[in-house]
Amino acid sequence: MSGGPMSGDRSRADSLRWTAEGSTVFFDALAGLPDGRLDEPTALPGWSGRHLLAHVAANAAALANLVHWAHTGEERPMYSSPEQRDADIAAGAARPAAELREWAARAADDLGARLAELDERQWKAHVRTAQGRTVTAEEIPWMRAREVMVHAVDLGAGVTFDDLPADFLAALIADIAAKRAAAPGPALTLTASGGGTWRIPGSGEPVPLTGTLAGLAAYLSGRGSGGVTGEAGGPPPELPRWL
Question: Rounded to an integer, what distance in angstroms lies between the CA atom of residue 168 and that of residue 161?
Fold first, then answer.
């Protein structure tokens, strides 16, 4: 789609700002959530609020490993293995609620401090994500922004995609659209009611879909149709969850 503030383009400064904003949104929502609610299931299959919070905490620590890699040149993967990642989340979810909350906040603060230490050369250093993608360190704050923004919605504490910044939503849609383009699925053409069009190649003739930025972001991330409609007001094709 064309450039501009709603195009989904993003800079390092954008990603750092969204990381900070997302942390505020997430931890403000968490502060209003009683400990007992953390024991209840979330919309994420098999995960309680405790698992979600442990994941957000572990993600900050994992991304700090990539910052260390960029800062020192010493290879340090996000996780030692997928199995270790799952085990860490399960163990974290079993912590007392106060300890779990403190861990998540401390890990987020530590990641922010480490990111602030990177210089221009280190921002361009190559690191490897848990999915095996080689990216520059400039991708790290975007990866974190996605986690805290989207999981603030998943927390079930009243935050919706409508509460997230419009420029972040546009960047999120562009990011998910690019990833869905590389996976099997229906061809889609998405048009935001406030402006912006994204095309996802796939099987069959492109299905035209319209919705708000928030609705399209919710739909593409596999979190409900969010008022997104197809031709003649019909429902959009179902998509698997993302992130």
Answer: 10
The stretch 222-240 carries a mean pLDDT of: 88
The DSSP result for 135-161, as a single string, is EETTHHHHHHHHHHHHHHHHTTSS--G
Class of domain 166-233: alpha beta
Q: Nearest to residue 138, comparing CAs of 19, 236, 30, 219?
A: 19
Amino acid identity at 166? A
In the chain, where are the structural domains located? Answer: 12-159, 166-233
CATH number for the 12-159 domain, one of 3.40.50.1980, 1.20.120.520, 3.20.20.150, 1.20.120.450? 1.20.120.450
Is the pTM higher than 0.85?
Answer: yes
**Interacting residues of 7 by C-beta distance below 8 A, sequence separation 6+:** 1, 170, 174, 196
- pLDDT of 40 > 60? The answer is yes
Vertex 182: Cα angle to 207 and 230 (nearest 5): 15
